[in-house]
Amino acid sequence: MRFSQLGAFATALAVLPELSLAKGSGIPSLKFTESPGAGFPLQDVQTVVVDSRFAQAKYEEGLSLIPPTLAEFAATFAEDLHAIAGSKVSVVEGSKASPQSIFLTLDDDTAKYVDAAGRKTAEGYTLDTGRSGITIKGASPLGVWWGTRTVLQQGILSADKFVVPAGTAVDAPGWETRGMALDGARHFYPKEFMIELCSYMSFFKQNTFQLHLSDNQIVNPFTMDTYARFRWWSDSESVAGLNKYRNESYTREDFDEIQTKCAARGVTILPEIEAPGHALPIVQWKPQIAYEGNLELLNLTHPDTLPTLKTIWAEFLPWFHTKVVSIGADEYGGPSDEYKIFVNALNEFIVKESGKSIRIWGTFPPDGSEHEVSTDVSIQHWSTYFDDAYNQYIKNGYSVVNSYDTFYVVLKYGAYGRKINIDTTFNGNPEGGPWYPNIFSTGNSSMNAPKDEPLIQGAIQPLWNDHGPTTSVYSEAFWAWREGIPAMADKQWGGDLTAEQFADFFPKLVGSVPAQNLARVIPSAGATIFDYDLTTEASEAVKDLSGNSNNAETNCESTGSSLSITPDCSFITPLLSKGRDYTLSLTLKVDEVADATKTTLISGTDSVLMLTPNITMFSAGVYFRLNTTIPLKEWVDLEIKAVGEQTFASFKSESGKTADKAEFLTAGVTGYPHMYPMAFEAPIHQVTGWTGELRALTLTNDG
Ligand SMILES: *[C@@H]1O[C@H](CO)[C@@H](O)[C@H](O)[C@H]1NC(C)=O
Ligand SMILES: *[C@@H]1O[C@H](CO)[C@@H](O)[C@H](O)[C@H]1NC(C)=O
Ligand SMILES: *[C@@H]1O[C@H](CO)[C@@H](O)[C@H](O)[C@H]1NC(C)=O
Ligand SMILES: *[C@@H]1O[C@H](CO)[C@@H](O)[C@H](O)[C@H]1NC(C)=O
Ligand SMILES: *[C@@H]1O[C@H](CO)[C@@H](O)[C@H](O)[C@H]1NC(C)=O
């Protein structure tokens, strides 16, 4: 058995010194056999050679309907090599490895790549490294892609920078479904954010990103005005009125872009349209199908209900480039037999319409009643309160994806975590040892399946926004997952990292994940990122005194001792946004605001600092206001500080008015006055929109 061998391997290694563990491993962990001799420095790569026999090969048997070719994966890999090691790499086709190349090919012998249940998996690969180059042989192009992630990770982790150690690894995932689920219904996220998250997930070999894009905020009681959103935007008559929020939606083109860019990195988008619970967006569209007494549920015996759902799915099924979609079907409070009949009817419709299969959240497990959900429907288990996934679903022939709520993140509400509980990933088996997708309960072993149970498809960890958009900004979803994604990814793959190894590798890797800058890091020579002194006669080009050459431009006039700001001119830095931690300092005098309730002081791509008239951060479409404001017509030193999960404003004016670390808090939800910290990015791109003077603007990396 593959896993008991791995276990023994880990125990044997555990007595060796830390350093030798790093060699050839990564996140997820890797079984690596070192060979004598020098490794291969990634800076030396000149070409990525794609085996011409397989250049156009695609992995068609997976979840994605738009899998990239081997040549396309190679092109993306070459971009990453350039971004990480600075190597200028060309992609060519050929029949064998050439010196200083990385050769990508497919393996004839695929029997050695097996999953946790001992079945063949197409996502396995073999990596061979020597002084003159690297060969990655995959069971499929997707297997090769995961091999490229290993090469990058080994280069980054190498003590000798970017040298991939000489040796061989044969690697394959234990489970075919590995990923995350984001509640983008009760909080909007821009498509760029989703795409960057895919890059992040892919670096740790996750392959599935579930997007829950129809739901309503949790309040009591629900009203027809409760925040509820359906995020896809179609101009089709059949769904006219279903979505009324054009600026926080995805058009077909947007959704194609998300799906295509994620697929390019081996990640499939798995969309979820939730019903017959959490269905207020649908009820707001068709009020007659509400369940009497609870507006977020659908009345499944109403003659319009099933046709409404069929209309929605018929419109959007062609948009989805995946073989599995989720109909949600979570937490339904109506009769279970009506629910089961509904799920089966929608299943039949979706299969017939599209050939896709469906997934539901574990809700009414089989109970011997006349109607049961078809075993063609896969189950997403989350709570032992709603089901016993092993005894009730798996033993009755259902496939299960494990979304165990011990790893839930609910952004700033309730008992669930604010971050993924990573201690549990390393210690979650009640019998001892780490959590794996076969563990449905950390407390009761009788609920857990054997590791080689073939009906376990894998695991997907969700993040929810029960209390809607006013409790977080986009990036807080990333920060809640930043460590959790790689920690879960190790176990979803079947890796055996210890908490100590993870703590060693993670900080070394996290700053180098390609094709994303979710943490909004700005490279800087020292602690000061920019420093503009505007007290001397300024020209159009304003020199950055930090040493980073982040020189700014302005078309505002100088007064001789300050820059004169008006809504008709601007001061523009070459930077857009800065993530935690930071201190942004402005020395300014605001003489006049055009709109006392809505004036921009400085804006960036993730946030805007405003006077409304209170000091306000506008971010993710929401105004987060302090209970204080700066005085007008006098000089003020204003400082915005981000420290971890918190953001503060302080100021001091010429006449002695002050605020000391006033903290920005969640904007609140009616009926749930919980106040939590807010973490904003610094707005650092453009100063304009007010009338007055600016003397200095600086940004440092310290909070
Ligand atoms: C569901 O709709 C049917 C048909 O209109 C109606 O008779 C019934 O009262 C409704 N039930 C609920 C719980 O809303
Ligand atoms: C553990 O799970 C089994 C199987 O579902 C159940 O019968 C038993 O009552 C559970 N034990 C506890 C202490 O909850
Ligand atoms: C979308 O438009 C609404 C209504 O104008 C506005 O309140 C919201 O802030 C906008 N959303 C974003 C992300 O800008
Ligand atoms: C503003 O004051 C109100 C009332 O005292 C308080 O509930 C709220 O938390 C304060 N808001 C902030 C952002 O401090
Ligand atoms: C603005 O601040 C004042 C205190 O200066 C506070 O009473 C008021 O509630 C705040 N307004 C908003 C919209 O937060």
TrEMBL record:
Record EC number: 3.2.1.52
Name of the top EC class for this enzyme: hydrolase
Keyword Isomerase set for record: no
Catalytic activity, as annotated: Hydrolysis of terminal non-reducing N-acetyl-D-hexosamine residues in N-acetyl-beta-D-hexosaminides
Keywords on record: Glycosidase, Hydrolase, Signal
Active-site residues, Swiss-Prot/TrEMBL: E331
GO MF, one example: beta-N-acetylhexosaminidase activity
Protein name: beta-N-acetylhexosaminidase
